[in-house]
Write a structure and sequence with these properties.
Structural class: alpha/beta
Distance between the termini: 37 Å
Order of helices and strands: EEEHEEEHHHEHEHEEHH
Number of helices: 8
Radius of gyration: 19 Å
Shape: globular
Largest sheet: 6 strands, mixed
Length: 256
């Protein structure tokens, strides 16, 4: 089976009147169906730039990015994107916000509306379908934003620091919530984060980038031995968690 995503020797630089600034060099990796990949690295190493390349907002200068075997940008790119802010529209109800992407894509059918209602019910927002986003907590807002994205049934889900605007306790709760939802849904996902603990608690593999220009320092598999459910919070409470934290920290420290 072909990977959902393949990046092959991708290079990208930013250009200005002052000259050229290399952002990413020789980025090569793949992501399997249903896999959760986290990307970590120093500030300015090109993490968010890499997500922009993957979803086709910008093009690599050299190299190739394939989504489900097709070059990104060559056809319909079915990628969902969760940003740092939820961008829920206050003048629309929670249910209407969850429908927004489907409306934009002209896929607002009764079948898809029913899927959205089921998602809201499954993930604990059925009591707020007619409420404005202001009635939701920060964690519930992110859950609504994820439902809006999942409603589009993306082949690949990109998460760019989606919990960074939340306070620490809420961040832990929402990361556990969102991580569990993504894992249970079987979605293929890539998370960009500065938080090593967050990456370890959610990912199947962690890709470590070097200082700018970003190169792949290493890709570390993450696997926990659980008799109970594999969730972000259960991982944080596992004795194995410290082992993985030290491995990732060593990769980042050695690069410095």
């Amino acid at each position: 089976m072909k990977p959902v995503l393949e990046c092959r020797q991708v290079n990208f630089s930013y250009h200005s009147l002052e000259g050229e600034t290399a952002a990413l060099i020789d980025i090569t990796f793949s992501v399997r169906q249903g896999e959760f990949l986290a990307i970590v690295g120093p500030s300015g190493c090109g993490k968010s730039t890499l997500l922009s390349l993957i979803c086709g907002l910008i093009e690599p200068e050299t190299g190739q990015i394939l989504l489900s075997g097709q070059p990104v940008g060559a056809g319909k790119t079915n990628v969902g994107y969760m940003l740092q802010k939820d961008h829920l529209l206050e003048w629309r109800s929670v249910y209407r916000n969850a429908l927004l992407g489907l409306e934009i894509q002209k896929r607002d059918t009764e079948e898809n509306r029913e899927k959205v209602r089921n998602l809201l019910n499954t993930y604990g927002l059925s009591a707020f379908t007619k409420s404005p986003p202001s009635a939701l907590s920060g964690g519930m807002r992110q859950r609504a934003a994820l439902i809006r994205t999942l409603a589009l049934e993306p082949d690949l889900l990109l998460l760019d620091e989606p919990f960074s605007a939340l306070d620490y306790q809420t961040r832990l709760e929402v990361a556990d919530d969102i991580g569990t939802i993504i894992r249970k849904s079987g979605k293929t996902a890539i998370l960009v984060t500065h938080d090593l603990s967050e990456a370890i608690s959610m990912a199947d593999r962690i890709l470590v980038l070097t200082h700018r220009p970003g190169r792949i320092r290493g890709i570390l598999p993450v696997s926990f031995d659980f008799e109970e459910e594999d969730t972000p919070l259960n991982r944080r409470n596992s004795e194995q968690f410290t082992h993985y934290f030290n491995l990732v920290w060593k990769e980042l420290r050695d690069d410095g």
